[in-house]
Design brief:
mainly alpha
């Protein structure tokens, strides 16, 4: 999925919460099965850019260098900081004309956390600069963070229900397809 999915979730929740809004023929949002609940929080746009830039600007050289991972940490910090900005820009691009803009605060907070977990899961993680760090921790960091984000999103009402995006009471058409 992607940061765009995070924004779609925010917009779907906003629309579902507005009882005065006329429902579309089809419930809004993205599919709500368990796999999508987990993958919705993967910031693919910034991970893709990070991996490409990592290959270009942060190669570890063969000759001795006092700080071989410094460029990786700097790149990691920059891309982590850019994540909330990308979320806001996507949200602005996706909002309906004439509607009041509401910041997707949860997605803005979660995006850099999710990005960090995914960046740390790469084999060339900057965490390798820490003495005693082993690559076996990459999977643990990613798994724990991804599951924690999913559980937190559901607990805080930031994810659509597993069964539906909008209820009949909110105006969803029960005869329309859900996917």
């Amino acid at each position: 999925m992607s940061l765009a999915s995070m924004v779609d979730t925010h917009l779907a929740s906003q629309q579902g919460a507005d009882k005065d809004q006329i429902s579309p023929d089809k419930p809004v949002g993205v599919s709500t099965n368990l796999v999508n609940q987990i993958t919705r929080w993967i910031p693919t746009e910034t991970i893709t850019v990070y991996v490409a830039l990592l290959a270009l600007v942060a190669p570890i050289t063969a000759h001795p260098h006092p700080h071989p991972y410094l460029s990786r940490w700097v790149l990691f910090g920059i891309v982590t900081a850019v994540n909330p900005v990308v979320v806001v820009l996507i949200a602005m691009a996706k909002r309906k004309a004439g509607t009041r803009f509401k910041y997707p605060v949860f997605a803005m907070i979660i995006a850099p956390i999710a990005f960090a977990a995914w960046a740390f899961s790469l084999s060339d993680t900057p965490l390798s600069s820490i003495p005693g760090y082993g690559i076996r921790w990459n999977t643990a960091i990613l798994t724990v963070t991804t599951v924690a984000i999913t559980l937190m999103a559901n607990a805080l009402g930031q994810s659509p229900n597993f069964d539906q995006v909008m209820t009949k009471e909110q105006g969803a058409n029960p005869d329309s397809p859900t996917s």
